[in-house]
Protein: Beta-lactamase enzyme family protein
Amino acid sequence: MTARHAAKGCSNAKADARKDHARHAGHLAQDAPGEKDDGRRRAHRGRAVAVAAAITVGVAAGAVMAMPQLRGQIFSPAGDGGADASTPATDSRRGDAGASGEEAGTTKGGGSDASAPDGGASDTSASGEAKAAPKEDATALDTGADAKVTTFTTRSGISVTAPAGFESTPTCEHLEDAVAAFTARGYHLGFAMVDLKTGRGASYNASQKFYPASSIKAVYVTAILESTHGGAASSSDAITKCLVDSDNDAFRTLLKTYGYRVYGSWLQSRAPEAAQEAYGYNYPHISAAGILNCWREVYRFGTPGEPGASLLSGCLARTNHSAWGALLRDRFTVWSKPGWYPANEGLASTATADNGIVFSDCGDYAVAVLSDAPSDFDSLLPVLDALNAAHGKMCGGSSALRQTSATTVG
Structure:
C-alpha cells in the first residue's frame, strides 16, 4: 500500500514549531492552567513525623487505587459503532456560540501552547513510571491467528478483546495503572483501540461524548475529499495547513468552501451522536467509539490510493503537536490528528485528544483517545504508551514502553 509509506519528513525548525502552536484551531490566547508554587516546605525532623508521613502516603495510594471507573467497550473488525454515544463528558459546558459554529474568543493565531501546562513533566514521571511495566513483557502468550480470544472487563472498567491470558500480563496491569493515574487527576477519559485485521483491542468509556478540539479536522477533510471524489484536493494548501499545522483560518476556509452539510451527512453513518451538531458547528462533540469509526474510514480511503488519498495520508503522517507521533514516528508510520483546548468557553470545553492510525510491527490499528484534560499531553502520554504496548502484546509485536524523558509533544 503506497499510503503506508507516506513521507514523514518536512519537519519544521524548532522556532517554527513553537510558532505553529499558536495556530491551533479553537484555542484561546492563554496558557493552560498550571499549578502554583506553594513555596518551600519546612523540613520536619523526628521519627514520629516520618511515621505520620508514611501513613499519609499509604492512605493516599489506597484511595487512588480504590477509585471507581466507568465501563468501556470493544469493537469488532467490522466495527458498526452501535454503542450509545449520547452521554456528554461530565465537565463539558455548553453555551451559545451561534449557528455559524465559531468558537467564542477565537482569533487567527490565538492559541494555547500544547506543551504549556505547568507541572506536566513532573506529573508524567509520577504517573508513567510509578508502576511501570517491563520494557518487554516476556509473559508467554499465544497471539497467533488461531489463538483463543476472550473478551473481558478489567477491575477498572477497561473492556478488552485479546488472546486468553492477556488479563494476567504486566502489560494489561500497566494499562490499568495508566488509566488510574490519569483519572486520579480529576480528568475524564474515553478511548477505543482496535487492530484492523484481528479485531483485538481495548476500550474505556467509549460511548461518552467529549469536545474533540482540532482532532476533528481530519474527519472533515476526509469527508470533503470523499464527497468530491478527490476534487477537494484543489484546496491542497488549505488542507495541508488545516491538518499539518492545525490552522484555524485554513479550517474556516474549507468550511466556507464546502459547507457543513457534507460534515453532518458523513458523520451520520459513522458517529451519529455528533452528526446533528456538525450541521452547524465546527467542533461537534463526539465519542471515542464514533471517532474510531471515522478513522477506520480514513484508513479505508487512504490506503488504496483513491483520488485525494495521497494528499490526506501525506498530511496525516506529519502532523505537528502529535503525541502519537512523538511516541512512535521514529519506528512506525503514524497518521494522526491531535487536538487540545485549555478552557471551558461557550460550546468549547477543556480537551486533550489524539486519534489516528498506527502502522505497527504487528499490524495496523486505529485508535481514538479523548479527554477533558486542559491542554495536557504530558499527562496523556502514559495512557497512549500503555495502549500501544497493549496492542503489541495482544497481537504478537513489541510490548515495550516508548516514552522517555526526551519524549515531548511539539
In short: Residues 20-27+63-395 form a domain with the Beta-lactamase fold (CATH 3.40.710.10).
